[in-house]
Amino acid sequence: MSTPAPLPRVVIVGCGFGGIEAARTLAGTPVDITLIDRTNHHLFQPLLYQVATAGLTSPSISGPIRHILRRQIRNGQLTVLLGQVVGIDAGARCIALADGERVPYDHLIVASGATHSYFGHDEWAAHAPGLKTLADALHIRQRLLYAFELAEREAQDAAARESWLTFAVVGAGPTGVEMAGTLAEIAHHTLHEEYRRIDSRRARVVLLEGAPRVLGAFPETLSQRAREQLDALGVEVRTGAQVTHIDDQGVRFRRGKDEPEETLRARTVIWAAGVAASPLGRELQRATDCALDRAGRVVVEPDLTVAGHPEIHVVGDLAAAKSHAPGREPTPVPGVSPGAKQMGRHAAANIRRRLRSQATRPFHYVDYGSLATIGRRSAVATVQVPLLGQLRFSGLFAWLFWLFVHVYFLIGFRNRLIVLADWAWAYFTFERHARVVPEPLATMPHARQEHTWAEPVEPEHASKRA
Question: 32, 39, 73, 445: least surrounded by Cβ within 10 Å?
Fold first, then answer.
């Protein structure tokens, strides 16, 4: 009795938007799938800043990989491995994990995403954390909340108190704008009655952007509208500000090449400016001699494969991909979650075509629009509508549309229900209950460990309330 031929082996590296869509698209295809990720969860990154600012808990925007793909696991099609990919051997068609294990493949989909880029100043990372993972979000939450705690302890030192109550956000893309607007809401509405020695409403939130305007990827009219909404929230926006130095005391920047440096004393700095491709891009270049762009992304073929290696697909933020719409010039695919999802589905569909000895198809990105929320009842949006073209709107309607879209794309009914409940509660009460920090004060970088407790003093705003 003959044994059945082994199924083609498909290895997917990364369980972000691209990886999970690829795995789902391959469901029911006669292949043996191995999904490898260095964490055990899928993360809805567009709402990561809400975890960092205590608006949502981490389980609300994430889910265990094994639970999300449990049907494929139960059907015997999918194996999930927790591991760190450190090498790719394109000749032997296998990948190497950090613990030495080697995983063979017939088809490989690399969807390992992106990380922070400090433009050659990696030493800034210790003072200005970025926001890409749950660990990043919880670390930033700790820094934000403890900044108010440490300001409360600076009863006699006004300069030190002011530096703890000054928050700098570097980068005015969607993440930076959303972070700055939410920080202003926390300081002005959530915390203002919870401290005796300080008035949290005196906190400064400064948004630094090197380009001439915020949300540079949006149309200029919406960019200006976003700027006005940030101003209304009390965010200090400084465009054309090139950061030259970051340390534990704050940020130095200049407005022009010949302008003198300015110093912003801020003990809390959040980095939302630069993005670099996953280190696996360099590994793929070493293994296949593929081309990389300036951000370290892999330049892929029209069907999302690596040149000379049709068995290797690269999707998501790691791919320097172009959209090949019929009758149009190819255009770059933006590094957003809809693009990663569509690339993941397309790579999986092309693997199925190859298994049927059919020609692969070039990738065509469908742009549904862009969204960015600024704060309470404030957002900007561009939406592509068939026959009508691009619609642009801002304010309350854009904010409601942003809420609907993000809840809709969350994974799992439970997460949608919890996020809706948390947002409704926060809207009517201004409260944020995800403000528990598990680490003690001693773990806070730059925190003074020795304080002299003074007698309680009345905060500066007390006389204004009387």
Answer: 445
Q: Do strands 102-104 and 94-97 pair parallel, antiparallel, or not at all (unpaired)? A: antiparallel
* Contact in structure between 125 and 422 (CB atoms under 8 Å): no
Please identify which of the residues 21, 152, 154, 178 carries the catalytic annotation.
178
CATH 3.10.290.10 fits 122-273+370-437, yes or no: no
Tokens of 264: 């912003």
Predicted TM-score (pTM) of this structure? 0.88
Residue 178 appears among annotated catalytic residues: yes
CATH of 9-38+83-116+276-355, one of 3.40.50.410, 3.50.50.60, 3.40.50.620, 3.40.50.12500: 3.50.50.60
d(CA 86, CA 82): 13
Alpha helices in 64-119 (DSSP H): 65-68, 70-74
Q: Is 178 in contact with 215 (CB distance < 8 Å)?
A: no
pLDDT digits (tens, 9 = 90+) for 402-456: 888 888 888 787 888 888 888 888 877 777 777 877 777 666 655 544 443 333 3
Nearest to 341 by CA among 2, 119, 25, 9: 25
Cβ atoms of 279 and 297 closer than 8 Å: no
- Taking a C-beta distance cutoff of 8 angstroms, is the pair 167, 270 a contact? yes
Region label for 446, one of left (φ > 0), alpha (ψ between -120 and 50) or beta (otherwise): left
Task: Check: CB of residue 124 under 8 Å from CB of residue 118.
Answer: yes
Residue 3 one-letter amino acid: T
Q: For residue 322, is it left (φ>0), alpha (ψ between -120 and 50) or beta?
A: beta
Structural tokens at position 55: 């608006």
In sequence order, what are the beta bridge partners of 286?
none
Dihedral in degrees, nearest 10, Cα atoms 244, 221, 218, 116: 20
Is 47 within 8 Å of 61 (Cβ atoms)?
yes
> Which residue ranges does the chain devote to CATH 3.50.50.100?
122-273+370-437
Q: What is the pLDDT of residues 272-320, one digit of tens each?
A: 998 888 999 999 999 999 999 988 999 999 999 999 999 999 999 999 9
Other C-beta atoms closer than 10 Å to the C-beta of 443 total 12
